[in-house]
Design brief:
Elements lengths: L4 E8 L2 E8 L7 E6 L9 H12 L3 E5 L2 H4 L8 H16 L7 E7 L1 H11 L5 H4 L1 E7 L24 E6 L7 H9 L5 E6 L16 H17 L1
Parallel strand pairs: 3-4, 3-5, 5-6, 6-7, 7-8
Antiparallel strand pairs: 1-2, 2-4
Helix pairs in contact: 1-7, 3-4
Length: 228
């Protein structure tokens, strides 16, 4: 099992967050920066399981806390603060990557949505110019029970390829809602629908599939996609 290396990343003049680096099991030619969702930090089992499994497939993985989880607050920061954290983390990690090394970013639910918002209008910096792909793990298309409150206005501005992993019974957007929205984007979108999966990719016991098995499959497919 990969043992993550603890790092500190300055994300504002007076703020730092903790990051965990999961080194690839073999010499890596890609790095994946993965952000957590609104309800849990980077040490949630889904995050650590995916990060460990993706690293085992030859991709360096870096996870990080947003400022509110670093400070052990329950309520997420406002979007500008979340985006500022994303911007700083990418700049910090990109600075040390060798030429030709691929950089992909993404996240679980809110973490992926914030990554997509920055990528819609990325900073004009060398670090962000290196980002070549976006992985969305359960995109929160709308709040549960509020299908009219769509979070899609920024998506058409994204120009990098997208890998969208999504449960077919996700309360934040079903397959029937998600697929048409993303199919119209002016970039390549590769779908990975988890049959009968919820927002955390949990499937009914009747499927015979355990959480570790489902997450291992997701991790393998994401790693293959990242490595091209």
């Amino acid at each position: 099992m990969t043992t993550p290396e603890v790092r500190r990343v300055r994300v504002a003049p007076s703020a730092e967050v903790t990051a965990l680096h999961y080194p690839a099991a073999a010499p890596a030619r890609a790095t994946f920066v993965l952000a957590h969702g609104a309800g849990a930090d980077q040490r949630h089992r889904v995050m650590t399981t995916l990060a460990t499994a993706i690293a085992a497939k030859g991709v360096n993985v870096l996870t990080f806390n947003f400022q509110y989880t670093e400070q052990r607050r329950r309520t997420p920061d406002r979007s500008p603060v979340l985006e500022q954290t994303w911007q700083a983390v990418v700049e910090a990690i990109a600075d040390g990557l060798p030429p030709g090394h691929r950089l992909v970013i993404g996240g679980k639910s809110m973490g992926g949505r914030m990554a997509s918002m920055v990528l819609a209008h990325p900073p004009a910096t060398p670090g962000w110019a290196r980002v070549s792909g976006l992985v969305l793990l359960g995109y929160p298309l709308h709040p549960p029970g509020k299908p009219d409150q769509l979070r899609i206005a920024h998506l058409p501005a994204i120009r990098v390829p997208i890998r969208l992993v999504h449960g077919t019974r996700d309360a934040f957007g079903t397959r029937e809602e998600i697929e048409p929205m993303f199919q119209t984007l002016p970039t390549r979108v590769d779908f990975d629908f988890i049959e009968r999966g919820d927002h955390s990719f949990a499937v009914p016991k009747s499927t015979g599939l355990s959480e570790p098995l489902v997450l291992a499959g997701i991790a393998e497919r994401v790693a293959i996609w990242i490595l091209g």
